[in-house]
Design goal:
The structure is a single chain. The protein is mainly β and 210 residues long. Helices cover 9% and strands 33% of the residues. It is built from 2 helices and 12 strands. The chain is elongated.
Length: 210
Amino acid sequence: ASANSSVIVATRDIPAGSLADEVIAQGGLKEVKVPAGQMIAGAVQSLNQLAGATFVQGFAADQQVPTTGLQSLSRTFAVPDGFEAMAIQLDFVAGGAGYVNPGDRVNVFGAFSSQYPIGNATLPRAELLISNVEVLDVDLTVPARRGSTDTGAARLSTDTVTFLVAVKTTDAEKLVFTTEFESLYATLQAKGAPAVGDTPGRDGSSILAA
């Protein structure tokens, strides 16, 4: 007979964003024995492994829980003093097409449409929003489909990229506005490059200027 292994499964649907400690307290997870050949790659094998974690992927009832579906409290980065961490999602190419890594610094630009006026600016317009932004973390994956019989591992996304960036509160406001109403673009800076000063921006009247 084949050996059995312990795995953690959901006893009910668990939405992304749920706190593992709360789900455990509510009986939403349990340990079961399955044949070793049925254990998915990276399966969580003990409730103790989930302490303090957050679900970043939704799970259906009776689905095995892999470590890729959770984010633990341990981090490989620290938020610099005087800054706050903010997650921004960009289109894949606009976000550097996978060439930006944690620890890099980027310039973030806004592309503004002509839906409504922004100050006295001529629209549409592209302009630098924030320079020399530290990238704390990068996520290029999307969760496995709920109820999937695959390994449960996250899949590489070529649609979007998520940056966790360190910003001042006033700069976070710029990112919130542009994310909600316009479009963001990011460029990768050279190592040690200084912040870029104010730029004039570009619109239809200046796009061909030197």
